[in-house]
Amino acid sequence: MIRTFRTDDWDSYRMDYRRPHRALEPQEKEIEVVGDALQALQEAGVLPHMRYDEARFLAHRQAVAELFDIPWTAITPRMQRLLYAVNAIVQPRNMIAAGVFCGNTFISNAGAGVGPGACYTADALIGVEIVEREAERAERNVRRIDPTGVARVLAADAVEVAAEFAEPLQLLYLDADGTDERGKGIYLDILNACYDRIPPGGVVLAHNSVNCAARLKSYLEFVRDGSHLRSSVNVIFDCEGLECSVK
Ligand SMILES: C[S@@+](CC[C@H](N)C(=O)[O-])C[C@H]1O[C@@H](n2cnc3c(N)ncnc32)[C@H](O)[C@@H]1O
Question: In the 3-class helix/strand/coil scheme, how is 69-82 assigned residue by residue?
Answer without folding.
Answer: CCCCCCCCHHHHHH
